[in-house]
């Protein structure tokens, strides 16, 4: 029950559930026993006449404490830590996303408390996580070993190393103000091989919030959708197909124009999944943003009381002037397909592809939202923190890989024990089959460090094997690991 931590489940909560079932089962048994005895000892029965004395039911056995269960769980997870590391370090991608979060760091308690400020993550187009490191600051100097490790992972990956990534989405550091952007400097080998840096559109749009009076203003959602609409245009063929199948739903739609069908009968969700979008080019975006801002500066941007959305025209002009330089960083790289088809859906007798975009760092944001629940409870000492983190990421990656397998069949077995599957796949060749078709054997691990290993290595000499031997001793001893 602790393995899947998507609900932020803690051992105390699980212990309570087990305790409840345990008590219920016990009382049921007592009920059954006493029912039986009551029927035997009815007045007039032989047993009653003999006056036999019956034994009371044995007392309920106590469960091991939540603390002990947590210790047993962590010890068993720590036995697999090398497998989890290998799985994470065997993850690659063509379209990477680079972002940091602070949320998880404040959970670190004990000796490590306050030493971590940032958790920096790199994800791929399947929303898997290639690396996750904790640092005391989000500087280029502190992130350099992580970036180097990742680039080495690609170049040293066995006999047929994967090609370098093609794009990296970031929330800052995209522009080449002084020749080379800061992210390009971090990932210089990849940049030299042609990887381009792109700014995530959502982060760019959020920068306009500085000019907005309050995000509770009734025109704020309109403003956000207007910004999104000026950056992207819908694919005409996809839109025609969606209109065609909507028309097929009712003969009363025959008199309506395509525009009316789109406005009245096509939901935002359908647009999101069935119609691909393309960027319109930096030049055209300038005009489109300017037009949208002019409209919103006027009556269209005022609420019922006449209060304007923007603080004043000067502040929105200022933000726009600052953000214009990023328009090139927002464009899709030329010739790159920004969508994958995850399945086909049939509606009104017409089949249409269901798309998922690989653009932007939204998928990594999803991981960031999930991250805090990987570490159960409000606080956690360093050793269990690291075990929970690596186990959580390995499972997250495995789930994303299963989701992405063509035909949505996923993995045959829901298990994350890579060496076991790897071994069985080899042995099952005896029967002319493999145990798990959708399985990629992990690569041998390099010198990369993950999670807290990375943080510790920046302030002391660090050895991975020694660290985990010591960690297991700490877990076994159990005195210093609890919060
Ligand atoms: Zn930029």
Could you please describe the fold and organization of this structure?
The chain is an alpha/beta fold and 483 residues long. It has 19 helices and 9 strands. The chain has helices at 11-40, 46-50, 66-78, 81-88, 140-155, 182-186, 188-192, 201-206, 220-231, 236-247, 258-265, 268-274, 282-297, 313-323, 362-374, 382-404, 418-427, 452-457, 464-477, and strands spanning 95-101, 118-123, 129-135, 167-170, 196-199, 232-234, 277-279, 339-347, 350-357. The strands form 3 sheets. The protein has a 5-stranded mixed beta sheet with strand order 3-2-1-4-5, with helices on both faces. A two-stranded antiparallel ribbon has the order 6-7. The structure holds zinc ion (ZN).
* Structural class based on helices, strands and sheet pairing: alpha/beta
| Uncertain runs | none
Q: How confident overall, as mean pLDDT?
A: 86
Gyration radius over CA: 29 Å
CATH class descriptor name of the largest domain:
Alpha Beta
- The count of strands amounts to 9
CATH superfamily of the largest domain, by name, is Ribonuclease H-like superfamily/Ribonuclease H
Number of structural units classed as domains: 3
**Terminal-residue CA separation:** 21 Å
Query: Helical region count?
Result: 19
Using the alpha-carbon principal axes, give the shape.
globular
How big a fraction of the residues is strand?
Answer: 5-15%
Within the largest sheet, what's the order of strands? 3-2-1-4-5
CATH architecture of the largest domain: 2-Layer Sandwich
Give the oligomer, counting copies of the same chain as homo and different chains as hetero: single chain
The main pleated sheet reads as: 5 strands, mixed
Q: What order do the SSEs take from the amino end to the carboxyl end, as H and E? A: HHHHEEEHEHHEHHEHHHEHHEEHHHHH
Ligand list: zinc ion
Q: Approximately how much helix is present in the residues?
A: 40-55%
